[in-house]
Amino acid sequence: MNTAIMNIPTAQKLSYADFQGFDALKNNTQQLNELINLYREVFAEPVGWNEEYSYEEVMTNLSNELDVNAQLRLCLDREKQDEVVGFCWAQLLSLTDICETVKSVQHYQAIGCPDIFTPLKQLLGDQPMVYLHDLGIKRELRGKLSLNKLIYPVLEDVVMQTGVNKVFFWTIAETNVSKLAKRAGFELVLLHSGMQCYTGEITL
To answer: For residues 165 and 95, is the Cβ–Cβ distance under 8 A?
Structure first.
């Protein structure tokens, strides 16, 4: 029998931790460190984003992106002393601020920093939107961890905080997020230099 399969936790062995803002997270040193390490692991995978971020860079991103009107959810493996095995965070931002955030993404820089602000502004205006900053799951749990439990509570919490229910995020074809977006009813509003930009609404 495949021991890797035997070691995959069932839904009953997973739990979730929610953080409204960076201050709440930084007080939990273990989960902060595990989140940063998992983030670096997920985005460094060669098939996909192929990005290399230092510990300090991820820490800075977390501090900035969990500043105000933001929410983070971690998925924890209770059988491994609550090891962080998944993460998702979102924040209310204007389109201008979203595009400024995108500029810090290594993949965006690697494809030549194409202008996405102009076409998105024409399509969406510059109204605030709930921006899904990042989503990551430990490799062996992909397809087995409930994305509904990881993503939707984060989006719903920001919607409740702000009263804004329009969601925006982008991804690339090498990930499975585009499949999730279609299943969830999000609309592909722009395909530009391999960047897939989606919008949708969260109804509480």
So the answer is: no
pTM: 0.90
* Contact criterion met (CB below 8 Å) for 200 and 187: yes
Q: Which two tokens mark 195?
A: 């960047």
**CATH fold group of domain 3-201:** Aminopeptidase (3.40.630)
Residue 32 and residue 87 in contact, taking contact as beta carbons nearer than 8 Å = no
User: pLDDT, tens digit, for every residue of 49-81?
Assistant: 999 999 999 999 999 999 999 999 999 998 898
Residues near 55 by Cβ (< 8 Å), separated by ≥ 6? 36, 40
CB 101 within 8 A of CB 182: no
Tell me what the mean pLDDT of segment 6-11 comes to.
Answer: 54
Q: How far apart are the first and last CA of the chain?
A: 44
Across the beta sheet with 187-192, what order do the strands follow? 14-19, 70-77, 83-93, 129-137, 166-172, 195-201, 187-192
